[in-house]
Amino acid sequence: MDATYRFSTQKAYAAIHWMVSHGTAVDLHAALKTCYFADKSHINEHFQPIWGANYKAMKYGPVPLEIYQMMKGEGLFLWEVEAEETPWRLEGYRLSTKGNSKPDMSVFSESEMEHLEAGFALSSGMNFTSRTAATHGRDWQVANGDRMRYEDMIDDVPNRESIVRFIKESAPHVRL
Predict the structure, then answer these.
(1) Partner of 35 at 20 to 30 A CA spacing, among 14, 62, 115, 170?
(2) Which residue has the higher pLDDT, 83 or 23?
C-alpha cells in the first residue's frame, strides 16, 4: 500500500500566496518545483510531507496536481479556505499577486517554513532546464508518467527501508 496523505488545502493556499507576495511575478514551473523541493526535503528530514499533494510525473518534472489546480484558479478549494477569490492570478505562465494582502503563515510549522523557503530559493535560482533536470530523479523515473509515490522520494540512506515502512504506516493517520 502506498503512503497517501490527506491534502492540506490551507497550507497549499498559504504557500502560493506567500510565493506571489514577494513583489515579482513567479514562474509557474518555479512555483510548482518549489512545492516539490519543499515536500521532498521535508519528508526526508521529518518523515512527512508538507501538503500531501498527489504528484504526477510530467514531461518537465513532478506536478503537485491539487496545487496546480489552485494556481490556475480552479475555485472548488476556495470554500475550504473561506475565501471568495484567490489573492493571485495566473497570466500565461506567471503567477502574480492581485493585491497586498498578507498570507497566513501560521498554518506552517517552523520546519515546514524552513523547507518552503529553501525550496523557493533553490527553484527560483535555477533556470527552466536546470529545474527540470533536478526533478527527474529516481522518484520521477519510477513513476514513468504516472502518479509519483512519497516512498520513492526518500533518499538512499542506510535506514531507508524503515523510513518507508514508517511513512506507509503513519500516512493514513497524519493530519498535515
Answers:
(1) 170
(2) 83
Domain total of the chain = 1
Quote the strand ranges of the chain, DSSP E.
Answer: 26-27, 55-58, 61-64, 88-91, 94-97
**87-106 in b/e burial notation, b at 16+ Cβ within 10 A?**
bbebeeeebebeeeeebeee
Residues 6+ positions from 109 with CB-CB distance below 8 Å: none
Position 2 confidence tier, pLDDT thresholds 50, 70, 90: confident
**Mean pLDDT, residues 69-91:** 90
Query: Is 96 part of any domain?
Result: yes
User: Does 4 fall in a domain?
Assistant: no
Residue ranges making up the domain that contains 155: 9-173
- Quick one: cell of 136? 527527474
Q: How confident is the model over 21-58, as pLDDT tens digits?
A: 988 899 999 999 999 999 999 999 999 999 999 999 99
Q: Pairing mode, if any, of strands 61-64 and 55-58?
A: antiparallel
The answer as to whether 108 is a domain residue is yes
Confirm whether 1 is domain-assigned. no
